[in-house]
Automatic annotation (TrEMBL):
The lineage of its organism: Bacteria, Bacillati, Actinomycetota, Actinomycetes, Streptosporangiales. InterPro entries: ATPase_BadF, ATPase_NBD, Euk-type_GlcNAc_Kinase. Gene3D superfamilies: 3.30.420.40. It comes from the Bacteria. PANTHER family: N-ACETYL-D-GLUCOSAMINE KINASE. This is BadF/BadG/BcrA/BcrD ATPase family protein. It holds the Pfam family BcrAD_BadFG. Residues 2-271 form the ATPase BadF/BadG/BcrA/BcrD type domain.
Length: 335
């Protein structure tokens, strides 16, 4: 399972990587959604995937891995107990499931190597140093309130702030601000008349955003990439700043001159060419010679890690590819 902040995907495969059943559910980060809601999403996804895998799938499970955004929350015994309880209620084979970080799964989706670095920019953002396929060190991943710099939330937040500034000025909006305002307050226009000021239009925009969940700002991130392509200076500043934050997180977990692979993962990096190119340029300055690769199918990587637990050979690169090669329609949140 690949359980991120926005989407959870469960995948059932054979030990050779043949896909038997898959299903999607909502985000399952316990830090963002709470243990109960996160556990129910996990149970929903894994239950549906097992049902689609065949009538005997549950008794035939050999091993399972859940790559969980916010996995550190499981150090709290009550959080772990609540999530396991929801999985049990959903009929999941809990005794055979192991929780790992979504960064460990994301790294495994991009390389069969056991050691290296992964940078995830999805709903949240985290860089992880991976040793023997487990996270040994991390940077950021602090959540939307005080961290996750360079994530979809961070980018969307910057876009919203820029839009509010432009609305307050009452001048013509840039492509970025125009698209953000259209998405947040569609159809609303400044009220005419001398007694009405542009700031009130900006406050209407701000009140609408404040009335929703903060994490919803992540939905504005794609608009920044679109505006970047139109040459919007504000969008270019946001993209460059986001790439700088992500690169800084990578450098925090790597040693000088290190040549181990770096895997780029998460919806922001997989879905935005401007973000991917900006980060690649910055990483090239401090990670000369280190191979860069894009994450593959993260749910498949979780299944590959589960297969390793069941005895599959770790050095079979073709087997790794069978699990992690993305298929048309693959979706991943990863953080």
């Amino acid at each position: 399972m690949d359980a991120g902040g926005t989407v959870t995907r469960a995948l059932v495969t054979t030990l050779t990587g043949t896909r038997l059943g898959q299903a999607w559910a909502g985000g399952a980060n316990p830090n963002t959604h709470g243990a109960g809601a996160a556990g129910r999403e996990l149970a929903s996804a894994v239950g549906a995937a097992l049902d689609r895998a065949g009538p005997h799938a549950r008794e035939d499970v050999a091993a399972g891995v859940i790559g969980l955004a916010g996995v550190s929350a499981l150090r709290d015994g009550e959080v772990r107990e609540r999530m396991v309880e929801e999985l049990l209620l959903g009929g999941a084979p809990v005794d055979l499931l192991g929780f790992v970080g979504d960064d460990e799964v994301a790294f495994a989706s991009g390389t069969p190597e056991p050691d290296g670095t992964v940078i995830i920019a999805g709903t949240g953002a985290i860089a992880g140093r991976i040793e023997d396929r487990r996270r040994s060190r991390s940077a950021d991943g602090m959540g939307w309130l005080i961290g996750d710099e360079g994530s979809a939330f961070w980018i969307g937040h910057q876009a919203a702030r820029e839009t509010a500034r432009q609305l307050s000025r009452g001048t013509e909006l840039s492509p970025l601000a125009r698209s953000v305002a259209k998405q947040v307050i569609p159809g609303r226009r400044p009220v005419e008349g001398r007694e009405h000021q542009p700031e009130e239009h900006a406050r209407d925009f701000a009140r609408t955003l404040t009335g929703g969940p903060p994490i919803a700002l992540a939905a504005l991130a794609p608009l920044v990439s679109e505006a970047y392509g139109l040459g919007d200076p504000a969008a270019q500043v946001i993209v460059d700043a986001a790439a700088g934050h992500l690169a800084h997180s990578v450098h925090q977990v790597r040693s000088p001159g290190e040549r181990r692979p770096v895997v780029l993962a998460g919806g922001v990096l997989l879905g935005s060419v401007p973000m991917r190119e900006a980060l690649t340029r910055r990483l090239a300055l401090g990670a000369v010679g280190a191979p860069l690769s894009m994450a593959g199918c993260t749910a498949g990587a979780a299944a590959w890690l589960a297969a390793l637990r069941a005895g599959a050979p770790a050095d079979d690169v073709d087997l790794h590819a069978a699990f992690t090669l993305p298929e048309r329609g693959d979706r991943s949140d990863a953080a």
